[in-house]
Amino acid sequence: MPDVDLASVNANVAKLMARSAEHARQIDSLAAAPPSPDSPFAAYGLPGFAGLPAAPAPPEPRPILELEDEEYEDELDALSDWVDDFLLRVYGAEVTTAAPWCEQWQEHADVVAWLHALWLAYQQHKDAEAGLSGLFVWHRDFLTHAMATVRAAGGPLSACMTDPDRPAHRLLPGPRPSNRTTTATEEHEDHEETGEPGQADG
What we know:
The chain is mainly α. It has two domains: 3-44; 58-195, no CATH class. Helix content is 50%, strand content 0%.
């Protein structure tokens, strides 16, 4: 066989072997177990690394007013540390009649809810995934609005401290329950006293 033909045969055999190896790799890839939903490769249809446990999902944040007992107290302690050590130290404007404050703000449920939501937003927007503009978004969309609401002249702390030299604390009464709720409660109590079952409206 001429040397030219032999070289051509060798080249063809090499190509066939390369294709065969590539097909084998594709078959192995298709036969691998599908990636778990938590795998960073799932969106690309690529298998994950076998033998590595999936990272546990972080706990979902819950509004602080939905927490109870020790769980609530622990969250309030952490929130208080953030408010005292960071928020007020950096953004705590002077106490005036236009910007009241309360050294017992933890007793104001609505203030606790506002500041907790602000804290959760801070944690989200300082994360690397928020990008370089994350904290700017937090300042613009969360900090300014929350502090203006909490420290408004007619806001939840307006009956508390309006002079830094005169600490004060008073909870303002909120609206009474609606007539519908009050009536339903009274009817329920009447039925309990008489032992008669309540009747549903037909």
